[in-house]
Write a structure and sequence with these properties.
The chain has 168 residues and is mainly β. The chain has one helix at residues 32-36; strands at residues 14-16, 27-30, 41-48, 59-60, 65-71, 74-78, 81-85, 90-93, 102-106, 112-119, 124-128, 133-138, 150-155. The longest helix is centred in the first third of the chain and has 5 residues, at 32-36.
Length: 168
Protein backbone atom coordinates (compact mmCIF):
# COMPACT_ATOMS: atom_id res chain seq x y z
CA UNK A 1 0.00 0.00 0.00
CA UNK A 2 1.10 3.55 -0.65
CA UNK A 3 1.10 6.29 1.94
CA UNK A 4 -2.39 6.99 3.35
CA UNK A 5 -1.88 10.76 2.94
CA UNK A 6 -0.02 12.55 0.17
CA UNK A 7 0.00 16.10 -1.19
CA UNK A 8 -1.82 16.64 -4.49
CA UNK A 9 1.48 17.62 -6.16
CA UNK A 10 3.50 14.68 -4.74
CA UNK A 11 3.13 11.96 -7.41
CA UNK A 12 5.41 12.05 -10.43
CA UNK A 13 3.80 13.49 -13.55
CA UNK A 14 4.03 12.14 -17.06
CA UNK A 15 3.02 13.75 -20.36
CA UNK A 16 -0.19 12.74 -22.11
CA UNK A 17 0.19 13.63 -25.79
CA UNK A 18 1.11 11.88 -29.01
CA UNK A 19 4.83 11.24 -29.44
CA UNK A 20 6.34 14.26 -31.15
CA UNK A 21 3.75 16.65 -29.72
CA UNK A 22 0.32 17.78 -30.86
CA UNK A 23 -1.58 20.94 -31.70
CA UNK A 24 -4.67 19.43 -30.03
CA UNK A 25 -3.52 17.31 -27.08
CA UNK A 26 -1.25 18.31 -24.21
CA UNK A 27 -1.54 17.38 -20.55
CA UNK A 28 0.43 16.26 -17.54
CA UNK A 29 -0.97 13.27 -15.62
CA UNK A 30 -0.36 12.45 -11.94
CA UNK A 31 -1.61 9.00 -10.86
CA UNK A 32 -2.59 9.92 -7.30
CA UNK A 33 -4.66 6.77 -6.72
CA UNK A 34 -1.70 4.50 -7.42
CA UNK A 35 0.52 6.55 -5.09
CA UNK A 36 -2.10 6.06 -2.35
CA UNK A 37 -2.32 2.32 -3.02
CA UNK A 38 -5.91 2.40 -4.29
CA UNK A 39 -6.82 -0.63 -6.40
CA UNK A 40 -10.56 -0.27 -7.16
CA UNK A 41 -10.75 3.53 -7.43
CA UNK A 42 -8.90 5.62 -9.99
CA UNK A 43 -7.77 9.05 -8.83
CA UNK A 44 -5.72 11.22 -11.17
CA UNK A 45 -4.68 14.87 -11.27
CA UNK A 46 -4.72 16.21 -14.83
CA UNK A 47 -3.20 19.52 -15.92
CA UNK A 48 -4.12 20.64 -19.44
CA UNK A 49 -2.24 23.38 -21.29
CA UNK A 50 -4.20 26.32 -22.74
CA UNK A 51 -5.97 25.44 -25.99
CA UNK A 52 -5.39 21.69 -25.49
CA UNK A 53 -7.25 18.56 -24.42
CA UNK A 54 -5.91 15.78 -22.22
CA UNK A 55 -7.72 12.88 -23.89
CA UNK A 56 -9.68 12.13 -27.06
CA UNK A 57 -13.49 12.35 -26.87
CA UNK A 58 -14.48 8.93 -25.48
CA UNK A 59 -17.01 6.87 -23.54
CA UNK A 60 -16.57 3.88 -21.24
CA UNK A 61 -18.66 0.72 -21.35
CA UNK A 62 -17.54 -0.52 -17.91
CA UNK A 63 -16.50 2.46 -15.77
CA UNK A 64 -17.98 5.64 -14.36
CA UNK A 65 -15.92 8.82 -14.12
CA UNK A 66 -16.26 12.23 -12.50
CA UNK A 67 -14.10 15.33 -12.75
CA UNK A 68 -13.62 18.11 -10.20
CA UNK A 69 -12.30 21.35 -11.68
CA UNK A 70 -9.63 22.90 -9.42
CA UNK A 71 -8.07 25.70 -11.52
CA UNK A 72 -8.65 27.36 -14.87
CA UNK A 73 -11.60 27.37 -17.25
CA UNK A 74 -12.69 25.15 -20.06
CA UNK A 75 -15.42 23.36 -21.95
CA UNK A 76 -16.84 19.98 -21.00
CA UNK A 77 -18.02 18.07 -24.05
CA UNK A 78 -20.64 15.55 -23.02
CA UNK A 79 -22.57 13.67 -25.68
CA UNK A 80 -23.75 16.26 -28.19
CA UNK A 81 -23.58 19.17 -25.71
CA UNK A 82 -20.87 21.51 -24.45
CA UNK A 83 -20.77 23.05 -20.96
CA UNK A 84 -18.48 25.80 -19.65
CA UNK A 85 -16.51 24.70 -16.55
CA UNK A 86 -14.67 26.62 -13.84
CA UNK A 87 -13.15 25.90 -10.40
CA UNK A 88 -15.64 24.13 -8.15
CA UNK A 89 -17.58 22.48 -10.98
CA UNK A 90 -18.06 18.70 -10.93
CA UNK A 91 -18.63 16.88 -14.22
CA UNK A 92 -20.22 13.43 -14.46
CA UNK A 93 -19.31 10.81 -17.05
CA UNK A 94 -21.33 7.65 -16.35
CA UNK A 95 -20.62 4.49 -18.29
CA UNK A 96 -22.65 4.15 -21.45
CA UNK A 97 -22.62 4.59 -25.21
CA UNK A 98 -21.65 7.61 -27.30
CA UNK A 99 -24.35 9.66 -25.56
CA UNK A 100 -22.01 9.67 -22.51
CA UNK A 101 -18.82 10.42 -24.48
CA UNK A 102 -16.84 13.15 -22.77
CA UNK A 103 -13.80 15.41 -23.04
CA UNK A 104 -12.49 18.44 -21.18
CA UNK A 105 -10.94 21.21 -23.30
CA UNK A 106 -8.89 24.06 -21.85
CA UNK A 107 -10.42 27.17 -23.43
CA UNK A 108 -8.72 29.57 -21.01
CA UNK A 109 -5.37 31.35 -20.94
CA UNK A 110 -3.84 29.38 -18.06
CA UNK A 111 -3.43 25.73 -17.07
CA UNK A 112 -6.68 23.85 -16.43
CA UNK A 113 -6.22 21.54 -13.45
CA UNK A 114 -8.76 18.93 -12.42
CA UNK A 115 -9.10 15.66 -10.54
CA UNK A 116 -10.42 12.62 -12.39
CA UNK A 117 -12.12 9.95 -10.28
CA UNK A 118 -13.19 6.61 -11.72
CA UNK A 119 -14.24 3.11 -10.93
CA UNK A 120 -11.64 0.56 -12.05
CA UNK A 121 -13.69 -2.27 -13.52
CA UNK A 122 -11.48 -4.54 -15.58
CA UNK A 123 -11.74 -5.49 -18.43
CA UNK A 124 -12.91 -2.29 -20.13
CA UNK A 125 -14.05 -1.20 -23.58
CA UNK A 126 -13.66 2.46 -24.55
CA UNK A 127 -15.19 3.98 -27.69
CA UNK A 128 -13.84 7.09 -29.49
CA UNK A 129 -16.78 8.59 -31.46
CA UNK A 130 -14.73 11.32 -33.21
CA UNK A 131 -12.34 8.82 -34.82
CA UNK A 132 -14.54 5.71 -34.99
CA UNK A 133 -12.06 3.67 -32.91
CA UNK A 134 -12.44 1.52 -29.84
CA UNK A 135 -10.00 0.14 -27.28
CA UNK A 136 -10.49 -3.21 -25.58
CA UNK A 137 -8.25 -3.93 -22.63
CA UNK A 138 -7.66 -6.17 -19.67
CA UNK A 139 -5.30 -4.17 -17.51
CA UNK A 140 -4.62 -6.67 -14.71
CA UNK A 141 -1.91 -7.65 -13.83
CA UNK A 142 -0.64 -4.34 -15.29
CA UNK A 143 -1.37 -1.06 -13.56
CA UNK A 144 -2.67 1.17 -16.36
CA UNK A 145 -3.80 1.42 -19.98
CA UNK A 146 -0.17 1.78 -21.03
CA UNK A 147 1.03 -1.52 -19.55
CA UNK A 148 -2.20 -3.49 -19.89
CA UNK A 149 -1.99 -7.28 -20.00
CA UNK A 150 -4.14 -7.24 -23.18
CA UNK A 151 -4.92 -4.13 -25.23
CA UNK A 152 -6.11 -3.51 -28.77
CA UNK A 153 -7.07 -0.23 -30.38
CA UNK A 154 -8.96 -0.75 -33.63
CA UNK A 155 -11.96 0.11 -35.74
CA UNK A 156 -14.94 -2.23 -36.11
CA UNK A 157 -14.05 -2.93 -39.73
CA UNK A 158 -10.62 -4.23 -38.54
CA UNK A 159 -12.36 -7.17 -36.86
CA UNK A 160 -11.60 -10.76 -37.72
CA UNK A 161 -13.84 -13.70 -38.38
CA UNK A 162 -14.51 -15.68 -35.21
CA UNK A 163 -13.10 -18.89 -36.75
CA UNK A 164 -9.99 -17.34 -38.36
CA UNK A 165 -6.86 -19.26 -37.37
CA UNK A 166 -8.79 -22.07 -35.71
CA UNK A 167 -8.70 -25.61 -37.00
CA UNK A 168 -11.98 -26.31 -38.74
Amino acid sequence: MGAPVIHIDAPDRFPMAPEGGSDIFGAQISPVGQALGLTRLGLTVIEVAPGKRGFPFHNHLANDEAFIILEGTGTYRFGTNEHPVKPGDICAAPKGGPETAHQIINTGDSTLKYIGISTRNDPEIVEYPDSGKFAAMAIWPGSSFFDAHLRVVARREDGRDYWEGEET
